[in-house]
Design brief:
There is one protein chain. The chain contains 14 helices and ten strands. By secondary structure, the protein is of the alpha/beta class. The chain has a single domain, classed as Alpha-Beta Barrel (TIM Barrel), CATH 3.20.20.370. Helix 4 runs parallel beside helix 13 and helix 11 runs parallel beside helix 13. The longest helix has 25 residues.
Length: 330
Amino acid sequence: MAPMKRLLAVLTVAVIAGSMVVAQTPAPVPHPGIKLSLDDLHKQMFHVSAGRRLKPKTWPNNSRVAVALSFDVDNASAALARGNLNYEVISRGEYGAVDGLPRILRLLEKHKVPASFFVPAVSAALHPKMIPDILASPLKHEVGVHGWIHELLPAVNNEAEEQRLLTQAIDHLTKAIGRKPVGYRAPSWQFSQWTPGQIKAAGFLYDSSLMASDDAYEILIDGQPSGIVELPIERIVDDFPYFGGNADGSNPTPSAVLEVFQSEFDVAYEEGGLYVLTMHPHLTGHRSRVAMLDKLIQHMKSKPGVWFATHEDVARHVKGASQATEAPRH
């Protein structure tokens, strides 16, 4: 058989074989939950869930509301994790280290307001000046763990690999800040099935990745108290849906975002609760958005009884709160 004919024959067999494999591969079930029992659904629903509510009657100094400002210092780590070498994307991430973070630190210093910075270890390694700049402030800002390279944990889908990345991140940041971080925020706020057990084993005081309440609560793992304080976040009080991702800067009026953030604070103030705001230096670090944050902080400071604190300070306060209520019944 001529070489060309042999090649065509091999390709034909390969195509047929491939078609057979495709034909034999079952289609994914679009709604797997419809096949599960209530017991199975209960296990899935409450593998990680809200335990006792940790809402104190008063905050330190008889304050009415606790404000915990946080910044996820992602820079270009998420793009690098996914192999995205589009240098428009990478340079926009780099902006967070070059201009965004310094501008934010200057604003916090202006208002004498502390904050928590959740840093992927790779972000810190690629821009090693960031953490010393954060820690140089007399405001005693906090640095927490935000993964190794902003890895998406459900996509990693490997217990040992996830543990390796978490250990690397903790080790790197411990050396960078001079002590072991006490706070954890999952990259993209997404847990795998192993994440809660791993952060408990790592001894974290608190997590700030979940959304089951406006106020702090204790995380339950398979219905059992974990001892981990959850300081809840929410997409509504996050700059990314408005200024990043699919928005891609298309929101021309930061005042509209200010209105949302301010309204969320006002209700938290009336309820005597907790207000956690999440921002990213490569997004909110831009001029018009820092101007928006400036106005928001001014509004908060115009009211009496506002306690600005790091996440660590809030977690330590609520964990010892004697007014904590019982967990919801599942």
